Each structure stands twice: as structure tokens, then as C-alpha cells.
Amino acid sequence: MMMKTGTYAFLLFLFFYINGAVAQQKIVDNSKGLKDYYKNYFPIGVAVNVQALTQYKSLILSQFNSITPENAMKMAPIHPQENRYSWRDADSIVSFAQSHGLRVRGHNLCWHEQTPYWLFKDSTGGRVTKEVLLKRLHDHIQTVVSRYKGKIYAWDVVNEAIDDDSTRFLRNSLWYQICGDEFIIKAFEWAHEADPKAILFYNDYNTERPEKRERVYKLLKMLVDRHVPINAVGIQAHWSVYEPTVSDLKKTIEQFSSLGLKVQVTELDVSIYPWEKERRAKRPGESDTLTPELEQKQLEKYTEVFKIFRQYKKVITGVTFWNVCDQFTWLDQYPVPGRKNYPLLFDVNQQPKKAYWGVVNF
Ligand code: GLA
Questions:
Q1: How many angstroms is it from 236 CA to the middle of ligand 1?
Q2: Which of 13, 105, 218, 288 suits a disulfide with 340, CB 3.0-4.6 Å?
Q3: Mean pLDDT of 29-53
Q4: Residue 227 Cα, ligand 1 centroid: separation in angstroms?
């Protein structure tokens, strides 16, 4: 039977359409993500909030095999009142991870920032005693770690306890003023008690800078010497296209792991601006574009640091990025509110940047 030209054309169209769709599907199916390129090295993680789980769902699932709650498990959000925990966001992130087979890093149990208003106060509004503060820390750790026992494989137990002033050792935080160094030791002991299988981390930034590295090392050594149950150290890696140097990074990994501790890169991003600590306003005329030169520098820095991570794969047990793509990064608000930054491997449209290809082509 003769087929009408129109029908024939339609069938031809259908054939190519279906084939095209299948071909496209194949490309998507075959595309490897960061986690696949690094499957013989270490898990690749990303920090998320609850919105990211829907907004960037397919990017997260195709690229990463570990997640860290960006804020949801910090003490203020998860424990807003002494007798009330707020589990909703933390639970959603953990159950997302469970249903998609991702690991979860818990972040964090004890930090001087993002603390709830009640924590350091007694009932008359005065400063709480050491006994009471340690009891609160114990109850917090016991409750949070137990809830996620077996679901969270690693915890940042103490975050950023070293002072910013290079001539001082421990940060003069309220934790320290009230408890001395005991809060650090106890935090690890109680986390271990609550989940003996969890891998316990000390986590800090600028750890590659020699002056800071020495002080972090001193703290880690003190903990190891006292048989405190610490297993690993988190190098936050809030870096820039200008730092760290190869030798500083290698020295840090070598020095920390010489104590028998594993190392993870826990909060990686590569800012296009030099590091600044203090918040400030954007200067008139201050540019905030990703120029081709900066993009090239960023490609080089990412390529260089991942080469080092691969060289140290025996001690590096994970690399986590701090946010998913350049559409949303905490560095848009810090240290210069409203100055756009582009620190990640995916651009504002969730597409891989040049730096991505530097990381995966080895
Ligand atoms: C520190 C903390 C993180 C996060 C970043 C900024 O590195 O460890 O939880 O707050 O600052 O986003």
C-alpha cells in the first residue's frame, strides 16, 4: 500500500526525533561526574541547604557522592532553645542522602559562631558556669550525634578553635573563656561515646599558612598525645586563585598526617579575590566579573590542588566543595556583601567551567 507523503514525512520525523532523544539520553547516561572520575581516590562532596536539594538535584546526584549540611546542623539552627531542637532541615538532608546513597558529613558540634542565644547565659542573664556549659555541650552532642548514629559517617566535632592572631594559640572565645581547653577534649570524648564508629574531625581554615599550620599542629598533637578520640583533620580550603602554594599545601597534609590522622578537604572553594578576613563595603567601581585571566588562574589553581590531592590519596579521605555552583555561594556576601564571586566548578547556569575540565582530565 502506498503511503501518503505526509504520513511518510511524519514517520521519518518520528524516527529521527526518537533517535535524537535516545542519543541525547545516552550522552546524559554516559556522562561521568566528579565522583566517577575520582572513584579510585576519594568521595567528592558538596555543602547543601534544603533548597539546593530540589534546585540542583540532578547536578548534585550526577556529580557528588557525599553531602554536608551547610548550616542546618550548626548549634543555633538545630538547637534554638535549651529544651527545643529543630530537626526539620537536618532530617530532610539526611533522608535525601539516605534515599540516594550519599554519605553525610555532620557539621558541626562545637563552634564559636552561630551559637544559640541561650548557650552561654544562666537564668539571670549572667555568664554560665563551666560546669553548666560543659553539661550543655554534653547534652547537645549526645542528642544530635545519637539521632544520626549510623547515618552520618563523620563529624566536624570542633570548628576553628585556633586564634586569628598568630601570636596567640587557642581562640579567646566564650567556650575558651569559660572552659579553658577542656571543651575541646570533652567534645571529642562525648561524640565518640555517642557514636563510636563516627570519624571525628577537628576542622579549621588557613591551615596551609605556616603560622596557622604550626598552631593547628600543636593542638592536634596535644589531642593525640592525650589519647583524645580524634581521627582526622579537616582542611577547610576556602582558598583563592592566589593561594595556597604547592609547598605549603603539601607540608600541611604531610605534617597533619604524620600524627596518624586522616585528612579531608572539607569546604573547598577558590575565590577570584585575594583573601580578606574583615567584612567591608564594596568599593565604588570595584569590578566583580570573572575575566578570562581570572578564569585561567582559577583553572590553574584547581588543577594544581587536585593533582596534590591525588598524590596524597592514601591520607586524603574526602574532598567537599562549599556550595554547588556559582549561582549561589556564601562568598557573594562575605567578606564584601553584594560583590559577586565565582569560586566553584559549575557556573551560574550549572554548567561545568574550564576549571572543571582541569580537575577531571588527568
Ligand atoms: C566556616 C564554617 C562553615 C561556613 C563557612 C562560611 O568555614 O566552618 O560552616 O559557615 O565558614 O560559609
A1: 8
A2: 288
A3: 92
A4: 28
The residue whose CA has the least distance to atom 8 of ligand 1 is: 159
Contact 330 CB / ligand 1 (< 6 Å): yes
pLDDT higher than 50, residue 63:
yes
Q: Which one, of 217, 110, 220, 206, lies nearest residue 165 by Cα?
A: 206
CATH number at 33-272+285-360: 3.20.20.80
Which residue's CA is the closest to the ligand 1 atom numbered 6?
330
Distance (angstroms) between ligand 1 centre and the Cα of 113 equals: 9
Q: Which residues belong to the active site?
A: 160, 267
- Cα 114 to Cα 108, 119, 195, 250: the distances in Å are 10, 11, 24, 31
Please give the single-letter amino acid code of residue 291: T
Cα(320)–Cα(60) distance, rounded to whole angstroms? 12
User: Separation of 267 CA from ligand 1 center, angstroms?
Assistant: 8
Contact assessment for residue 337 and residue 288, using Cβ atoms and an 8 Å cutoff: no
Condensed to tens digits (0 to 9), the pLDDT of residues 102-151 reads 999 999 999 999 999 999 999 999 999 999 999 999 999 999 999 999 99
Show me where the domains of the chain are located. 33-272+285-360
**Which ligand 1 atom lies nearest to the CA of residue 156?**
8
Strands (E), the chain: 44-48, 66-69, 103-110, 154-159, 199-204, 232-235, 238-240, 262-271, 316-321
Alpha-carbon gap, residue 203 to 154, rounded angstroms:
12
pLDDT at 5 over 60: no
Who contacts 307 (Cβ-Cβ below 8 Å, separation ≥6)? 362
CA distance to 268, 296, 357, per residue, from 353 (Å): 16, 10, 7
CA–CA gap between residue 161 and residue 170 (Å, rounded): 6
- Regarding the beta carbon of 204 and ligand 1, being less than 6 Å apart is answered no
How many whole angstroms separate alpha carbon 359 and alpha carbon 362? 7
Task: Please report the atom of ligand 1 found closest to the CA of residue 114.
Answer: 10
How far apart, in Å, are the Cα atoms of 213 and each of 14, 165, 233, 263, 291? 63, 13, 12, 13, 32
Pocket test for ligand 1, best of 109, 114, 205, 267 (most atoms within 8 A of CB): 267
